[in-house]
Fold this sequence. Notes:
The chain is mainly α. It has one domain (13-115): Winged helix-like DNA-binding domain superfamily/Winged helix DNA-binding domain (Arc Repressor Mutant, subunit A), CATH 1.10.10.10. Helix content is 56%, strand content 10%. The chain has a two-stranded antiparallel sheet with strand order 1-2. The longest helix has 13 residues, at 52-64. The protein is globular and about 50 Å long. The N and C termini lie far apart (32 Å).
Amino acid sequence: MYERKVIPNLNCGLDLIGEVLYGKWKIRLLWFIDQGHKRPSELQRKIPDASRRVLNMQLNELEKHELVTRKIYPVVPPKVEYSLTEFGKTLIPVIAALGQWGDKHEDRLRDVILKRL
Length: 117
C-alpha cells in the first residue's frame, strides 16, 4: 500500500481542500452518492472510465476524510452502501457551484483542453 513520504502542506484552506479532494474521481463520487447512487456497482456504472480498484481506493480515502460512510450488510454475497456524512453534505453546494461554472464556460474550457492534446 502507498505510504506518503512527504508531509503535506496544510497552511490554508486551498491546501486542505486539495488534500481531501485530490483524485480524479472523488468529486464525481461525492456527487453521485448524494444523487442516490450508493452501491459500488452503481458508482462504477456512473463512472465507467474508472477502474473498480481506483474507485475503491478513492472511496476509502473519502471515508478516512470523514466525507462518506460505508455500511456493510450481513448478507451473502456481502452488500455495501456508501452515504455522505453531514460533513460530506457540506461539500455538495461547492461541487454544484463548480459544475455550474463549468457549464457556463463549457465551450471555452473544451477549446482550451483540446488545444493541449
